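Q: What changes when heme C is included in the input?
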Amino acid sequence: MRQNLKWALAALMVTCAATAVPLAASLADDGASPIFGVRIPEGYRDWKLIAVGQEVALNELRGVLGNARAVEASQGGALPFPDGTVFVKLAWKHVPVEGLDGAFVSGSPTTVQIMVKDSAKYATTGGWGFGRFIDGKPVDEAQHRTCFACHEAHAKDHDFVFTRYGR
Ligand code: HEC
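A: The predicted holo structure follows.
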């Protein structure tokens, strides 16, 4: 009887292991950015606003949100940002308000962009992992190769982050 129970348990463990492996593998490829493996964080849309930005060539308005660690570090102003800091940049088309000259609102969303601080994992890119998403899906590897180069060239003196806390 005891022997039967042992076999039953062993069979159960094998079944679990067999199903767990493909599940883990499919989760790993699904929705993560190339190179960095960054994902869109759960609940980010309710994070606090750090500040806003604008991109004239793309005709976009941007809002940069941060998790609790990003908000605290941005308010305190001490650098570098601690591990676990996450910034999410939302971008929208810049749309004029009809009949009200000079007034604009945000239109349809274009991209969601993410920076995650993990100084050991992302040691070769200033401690930051990057992700750019359109309709929830990561863009290609070539685009992800451009991220750190520009942040390094223009925001090195602020731990590669452009946005300052907007009071
Ligand atoms: C040509 C320069 C350039 C490239 C390339 C670039 N960025 Fe940025 N990034 C900026 C600028 C400028 C800002 C601040 C203005 C704004 O909000 O748009 C910014 C802001 C951000 C922010 C908000 C935090 C911060 O630094 O202010 C995130 C997140 C971000 N970028 C992610 C990315 C990702 C992911 C990529 C690559 C897929 C990328 N960026 C590529 C210039 C660049």
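Observations recorded in class: Residues 53, 55, 62, 64, 87, 89, 113-115, 130-132, 143-144, 146-147, 150-151, 155, 161-163 surround heme C (CB under 6 Å).
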